[in-house]
Design a protein that fits this description.
6-stranded parallel sheet; 8-stranded mixed sheet; 26 strands; alpha/beta
């Protein structure tokens, strides 16, 4: 007990309910262990009387492990036989301790009482993927029901689908099925309130908020002045602005004064305020030029308008600050009617979902909790039996609890009179670290429970109750870093009455007394130095210091973590670390279904299910399973056979394949035959294990830089296959269909867990995955990303309902609804509050050194809802301007603000970095194995007979041979064209814009809805920042109209025959040239022409100069087109520069393409002669 602080000792009290708010590094885990042992200290039998709830299975296992470790530690330091006897008894009983997740606890209760819970005794728990599959099946059944329902009922549903697309309704159903507890609240409200009552509730709510802005006196003043202006008979409404101004003034002037404080009155006043003040800063107009001008108003009205504008200006600022939203109206009535019909469809779908689960005897995670709550709240006798089992309930990570989970825990803490017991509950957590809103956690629960247990003890204020304890001592941070956190986050984290999701910040007192004081650096970088380069160079600088000189605290790669808010820039970070030969592990990331190794297995499963699926077979042949060379596949494609399986099984001795390739393809063919023969004879997961062994895939993956992650992901997928087969949900075809859906929808499934406990690698992970961990050195990059992630997703609110996107053709669809505003506003409050906490979690993972970075151009301001905005505002309040570089000092901490790298020596090339690493390695080896004989090192020569080149690779070689070597021989940019092209051609933003435009134009011909297509494309490329999203949306709308409206657009787009995204490969000498044509079409001369879209924002005068830059690409297109249509006399290639709306056409004849062929052959010879290894 001696090492505990006073507050930690207070938390061990067993005579009261206790809440512990434990800041980062304050000993939260230790107090859980010590409290557990305090409970059983004098009575080992109490082990079974404790229920401990943790957030994850890993945390439950770690708690038990720590308890055992602490028992063993106390045994070593206990001499008395009685004390040792008790400790040994506790250790013997520990296997019976109830330590689990909330889901694990619920499952245990339901297995004990299945009949009482109305469940099958042998029910099986399904995972998230299986749940998704069953939900999709339930939704499909619902749409079959809709198709078959009687005509009179169908008209009701027809109105819903007139307003909402089928895709929107399906998305809403999927979202609703994932939140049954919240949906029940919505259903109850709609059953208790008819349309008029619901609208009245909304109107009263809006009037209350709007009344804080414009009281009755302000309304009367606006009314009086509007009446005075509109009373003038000779108003000359001769301009649009004059008409608009007159209209809004008349909207309030025509009302009776007694009706001013109403929806109509206040809404009219708001319209006047908006019309008579400047949009950019809500200030008053000095004149009336923007209100109609002198030709619309006489001299008397002019002065009245200016005076009214001045009166409205402060009210306009108030409206902007408090923003009550649009007044409730017809759009809300439409929303109510649509929601009523949707709820009827949802209840049918929920019944379908429940029926299919009952048929299979399975439950999902939500079922476990709902069934347990129903069991506890609906049967008092059962509740008393279960409650009496536990004298103490401890809940870890309570900040991540939701309302449903608290209700279950609360039921277990009640006495026979339905009152919460006064000494049973112990909750511990940190509201500042509540970052799981996407899992329905509710940070407000923590505060509400603190108030509840304080009130139970007779205290009106939660702070007055001694059981509400705050740990203010931290054992993690060095002093300067601790001071930085205290000073900055007292400004970032503030409890606001306007946002119930904000939390208070409690400063921490560091108890750490070690060498060093804690360094903090903030890099505010422009486009010249990407953030990933800054990270890699900074790491190299840190490690170099360790290897070259004595430091107070040596730093190893394993001491360093890079924490990302999203995976958007993950690939760039990985490539930068590879470039500078920094070993790393990527852990706890999301995007499992989008990993290449998962794609490979997906195609393998497709082939096993349908051997004549040509695309799947080609993908398998090219995958890591076989890695058949593209040159061999190209030759194989020439075989006359309908399907690729037939080509593979044919006699291909006539093909110019070398002996090694032929032998290997024979081997591949035999393996495929073997697998197809076994596919219906052994379980699928066994077949996959056999396939992995047959091709030595574990060994192949182990040789990759991220091999551990690849193997873990592979094993996770095979486990998913096993679970799916065991559940009896469906066959292989259904499994493949659902994987395809998960891949297409970019389901944010976490990657498989890997071991992080090593000192050899830098760790890259999401901030969420890093929660609960700490590292001596932490990098937190990309702080200038917007925190708003879901601009068009389906939002669900248990109090209000669901946000829905209404089709533009529906009645009242052009009006904004108040209910949608409320849902969006609450969601945004949650997102902003959680974004602030996410920054706190990221920063507090560092114990010694913290490196923060953001990209920001000189004249730009931080994104309004970004972490950089939170941070810069806090620093500015402390007198530190992030626009000014240098070492900034306050009384308590220092922060080094940098705008560029200032190391003494920055590696200029990969060669410098590689040579430096070799020299360091040589010195280490000489030091560690002095006297050993020198090893003979031989260069491995390998000149492949055939290689495949693209226009991009050739252009890369011409532009920068070193980058060519990095990308195509060392593989540093494999699969990451965008990251590479940022350095070679243009900026990342332009590359992103180009990709988006190309994708949009590719999908445009088959699209029915412009808005849905734009949303789909922007979602595919993860464009969530509001400003960028708005810019991209405007660009896409402009380009679509341009294609149909401008002469240039019509001439290339409104054509008869066309083909999009055509991939062509041709042979040049011993090698192959491949390329993809954006679009080919028959022009007015009935000649096939290549069209390549260019999204560069350039002037008309720069078009020819820019086209010269693309000359090799143009030549490639002409050459490929000549092989595609050799009968043509000409081969036109047109670059369509969308921004200036200009076509730049180049026409080649047979002689030209022959010259191009020779030119390419010479260039390929030069490349293969210089780099003769691949």
């Amino acid at each position: 007990m001696a090492e505990l602080t006073q507050r930690q000792r207070d938390a061990l009290a067993l005579d009261k309910n206790i809440s512990v708010t434990a800041g980062a590094g304050s000993g939260k885990t230790k107090i859980l262990v010590d409290r557990f042992l305090e409970i059983v200290r004098e009575n080992p039998n109490r082990v079974r009387r404790i229920l401990a709830i943790t957030f994850t299975k890993k945390a439950a296992a770690e708690m038990l492990e720590r308890i055992v470790t602490e028992i063993n530690h106390r045994l070593e330091n206990t001499k008395k036989s009685q004390g040792r006897h008790f400790l040994l008894q506790i250790r013997d009983h520990i296997s019976g301790a109830s330590v689990s997740t909330i889901h694990g606890f619920c499952a245990r209760i339901l297995r004990e009482l299945p009949f009482e819970a109305q469940l099958s005794p042998d029910f099986t728990e399904i995972d998230e993927m299986q749940s998704i599959m069953l939900k999709q099946k339930a939704i499909e059944n619902t749409f079959k029901w809709l198709d078959e329902c009687p005509a009179e009922a169908r008209s009701k549903y027809f109105k819903l689908f007139t307003a909402l697309s089928v895709r929107t309704v399906k998305s809403m159903l999927d979202r609703a099925l994932s939140s049954p507890f919240e949906m029940q609240s919505i259903i109850n409200r709609f059953k208790n309130e008819n349309e008029d009552a619901y609208i009245t509730t909304l109107e009263n709510d809006w009037l209350e908020k709007a009344g804080h802005i414009t009281g009755i006196n302000e309304l009367k003043e606006i009314y009086r002045r509007a009446k005075a202006i509109t009373a003038v008979d000779n108003i000359a409404e001769k301009s649009d602005n004059g008409i608009k101004t007159s209209t809004v003034l008349k909207s309030i002037a025509q009302l009776e004064e007694v009706n001013l404080f109403s929806i109509a009155g206040i809404d009219a006043a708001f319209s006047i305020i908006s019309r008579l003040t400047k949009k950019e800063d809500n200030s008053a107009y000095d004149g009336i030029s923007q209100l109609g001008g002198k030709k619309s108003w006489n001299l008397h009205c002019t002065q009245l308008l200016v005076d009214l504008s001045k009166f409205c200006a402060p009210l306009a600022k108030k409206i902007q600050q408090e923003n009550p939203g649009p007044a409730p109206g017809n759009a809300d009535r439409l929303w109510y009617r649509l929601m009523t019909v949707f709820l009827e469809i949802y209840e049918n779908t929920e019944n379908n979902y429940r029926a299919v689960k009952e048929e299979l005897a399975v439950v999902d995670f939500e079922d476990l909790q709902l069934a347990t709550l129903k069991l506890l709240s609906g049967n008092k006798d059962i509740r008393q039996v279960l409650s009496s089992r536990y004298d103490f309930i401890m809940v870890d990570e309570f900040q991540d609890t939701n309302a449903l989970q608290w209700m279950i825990i609360e039921e277990l803490c009640k006495d026979q009179n339905d009152k919460l017991k006064k000494n049973k509950i112990f909750i511990v957590g940190d509201p500042k670290q509540s970052i799981y809103g996407f899992r329905n956690s509710d940070v407000r629960i923590f505060s509400e429970v603190k108030k509840q247990i304080a009130a139970l003890a007779g205290f009106e204020k939660e702070a007055d109750y001694s059981g509400n304890i705050i740990f203010e001592e931290s054992f993690r941070f060095l002093p300067r870093l601790n001071a930085f956190i205290n000073q900055v986050f007292r400004h970032v984290l503030t409890n606001s009455n306007d946002n119930p999701y904000e939390v208070d910040f409690h400063p921490l007192e560091t108890k750490r007394n070690l060498p060093g004081t804690g360094d903090v650096e903030l890099a505010v970088l422009n486009d010249a130095l990407p953030e990933e380069e800054y990270i890699a160079l900074s790491i190299k600088n840190l490690i170099d210091k360790r290897l070259s000189e004595e430091t107070e605290q040596p730093i190893a790669y394993g001491d360093i973590a890079i924490l990302l808010r999203t995976r958007t820039h993950l690939l760039e970070v990985e490539q930068a670390l590879r470039k500078y030969i920094i070993p790393f592990k990527t852990a706890g990331g999301v995007g499992f279904w989008q990993r290449q190794e998962i794609f490979d297995f997906y195609h393998l499963l497709r082939f096993l299910n349908n051997p004549l699926d040509d695309l799947a077979l080609i993908a398998v042949l090219r995958s890591s399973l076989f890695a058949v060379p593209d040159s061999a596949l190209f030759l194989l494609s020439k075989k006359e056979a309908k399907h690729w399986l037939y080509k593979l099984n044919s006699d291909f001795n006539d093909l110019p394949l070398d002996k090694n390739d032929k032998d290997y393809i024979f081997h591949v063919r035999e393996l495929l035959k073997k697998w197809l023969d076994l596919r219906h004879r052994i379980p699928l997961e066994d077949l996959l294990h056999l396939i992995v062994d047959d091709v030595c895939l574990r060994l192949v993956f182990a040789g990759e830089l991220n091999g551990e992650q690849l193997i873990a992901n592979m094993d996770k997928l095979i486990e998913q296959v096993r679970n799916y087969s065991a559940s009896g949900i469906g066959g292989l075809d259904g499994f493949i269909k659902n994987i395809n859906e998960l891949i297409r929808e970019e389901m944010r499934e976490g990657e498989a867990n890997i071991d992080l406990d090593d000192q050899r690698t830098v760790k890259i992970m999401t901030i969420h995955a890093a929660k609960g961990l700490q590292f001596p050195v932490v990098f937190v990059p990309y702080l200038n990303q917007s925190s708003t992630r879901k601009p068009f997703s389906i939002l669900l609110d248990p109090d209000y309902g669901m946000q829905m996107k209404i089709n533009s053709t529906a009645e009242n669809s052009n009006q904004k609804s108040y209910i949608s505003f409320l849902i969006q506003k609450r969601n945004r409050m949650k997102e902003i509050a959680e974004a602030r906490r996410l920054l706190y979690v990221a920063v507090t993972r560092a114990s010694d050194r913290l490196y923060l970075s953001a990209s920001l151009k000189d004249k730009e301001k931080p994104e309004s809802d970004s972490a950089l905005k939170f941070l810069s505002s806090a620093l500015l309040s402390l007198g530190i301007d992030i626009k000014e570089p240098g070492l900034k000092k306050t009384n308590d901490f220092e922060i080094n603000v940098v705008h560029d790298i200032s190391f003494s020596k920055i590696p200029d090339t990969l060669g410098d970095t590689f040579n430096a690493s070799v020299n360091r390695l040589t010195k280490i080896l000489e030091k560690e194995v002095a006297g050993a004989e020198n090893a003979d090192l031989f260069r491995i020569e390998d000149t492949p007979e055939s290689q495949v080149f693209s226009a991009t690779s050739i252009m890369t070689f011409i532009e920068n041979p070193q980058y060519y070597y990095q990308r195509y021989h060392l593989g540093f940019f494999e699969g990451d064209y965008e990251a590479f092209a940022e350095d070679v051609y243009t900026t990342d933003l332009n590359m992103l814009r180009g990709k988006i435009v190309h994708r949009f134009l590719e999908l445009l011909p088959g699209s029915d809805s412009e808005n849905e297509l734009i949303n789909q494309v922007l979602f595919e490329f993860e464009v969530f920042e509001n400003s960028l999203r708005e810019q991209m949306t405007n660009d896409l709308i402009k380009y679509k109209r341009q294609l149909s409206g401008s002469p240039a657009g019509r001439s290339v787009y409104n054509t008869g025959e066309y083909k999009n995204e055509i991939s062509i490969t041709m042979k040049i000498g011993n090698h192959y040239l491949t390329g993809t044509l954006d679009r080919i079409y028959k022009n007015s001369d009935q000649v096939w022409e290549v069209l390549d879209y260019k999204t560069n924002k350039i002037s008309k005068d720069d078009v020819k100069k820019q086209s010269r830059h693309y000359l090799w690409q143009i030549k490639t297109y002409a050459l490929l087109l000549s092989r595609l249509y050799p009968e043509q006399q000409q081969y036109p290639v047109t670059l369509y520069y969308l921004y200036p709306d200009i076509l730049d056409t180049y026409i080649f004849d047979h002689k030209d393409v022959n010259n191009i062929y020779s030119e390419f052959a010479d260039k390929l010879k030069e490349i293969t002669g210089k780099y003769n290894t691949v």
